[in-house]
Amino acid sequence: MTNTRPPVALIGAGPGDPELITRKAARLLQAADVVFHDALIDRGVLELARPGARLVAVGKRGGRASTPQLAIHEQLIRAWRAGLRVARLKGGDPFIFGRGGEECMALRAAGIPYEVVPGVTSGSAAATYAGVPLTYRAMSQSVLFLTGRRARGTDAIDGVAVARAADTLVIYMGVESLPILCAELLRAGRSPSTPALAVEWATINQREVAAPLAEFVGACGHAEIKSPAIIVIGDVVALRDTLAFAPAPTARGVCCAAS
Asked: For this structure, is 24 an active site residue?
């Protein structure tokens, strides 16, 4: 007999601004009986869940108490097997540093169907709201997304390889490792004057700090930039002074970029 029950929905919540979530994501949230959600999901996104749906926080925060990944897998499997319509709401895009692939693997191993709804990833959203195009003809023809936090048992970041891999670097979860990363990039040949940008709270009360690469660590420390934040390094960051804009008001007020 063919299984007609809805699959587990892994949903990208986007970078923060509730208006950046997709229509499909909103529809699946409104249909779910239980929503397992990451930390830092904006309240406006959670409010898209239908009244009466159970909201379960399973978020991870670097250096803080978090739900173990295996426990998240078990909760998704248990809820679906109990006959519930299950949504897994993840910040940004589930398949970009979101462990969405691991959760799909667990569901697949358990014989449970799933679908994945892409979301706007914070790396591109943070840059866009700051007025920084990640690609720009004659200035940036390539972009590299990387994480500043390495999984256990994996090699450290190869600064030489990273410095040569792309014109523009977009670094997730890189605040703690920023001194090492910047030193590696400078040692690998990146110019000390390369523009760099840090963005906190992308698209919602976005806060930005920009400085040349050689001065960037000090600037971020002075501004007390905290994790999670997005780091953008490359010549395109210089376009921020020309292309920065004030985002239009949302249903929750005005999102404004502040230096």
From this structure: no
- Residue of 24, 60, 167, 235 with catalytic role: 60
Structure confidence at residue 63 (pLDDT): 55
DSSP code per residue over the chain:
----SPPEEEEE-BSS-GGGS-HHHHHHHHH-SEEEE-TT--HHHHTTSPTTPEEEE----TTS----HHHHHHHHHHHHHTT--EEEEESB-TTSSS-HHHHHHHHHHTT--EEEE----HHHHHHHHTT--S-BTTTBS-EEEEESSPPTTSPPP-HHHHHHH-SEEEEES-STTHHHHHHHHHHTT--TT-EEEEEESTTSS-EEEEEEHHHHHHHHHHTT--SSEEEEESGGGGGHHHH---PPPBTTB----B-
Q: Is 90 annotated as catalytic?
A: no
Q: Which of 17, 24, 33, 38 is catalytic?
A: 38
In the predicted model, residues of the chain with pLDDT beneath 50 are 1, 251-259
- pTM for this one? 0.88
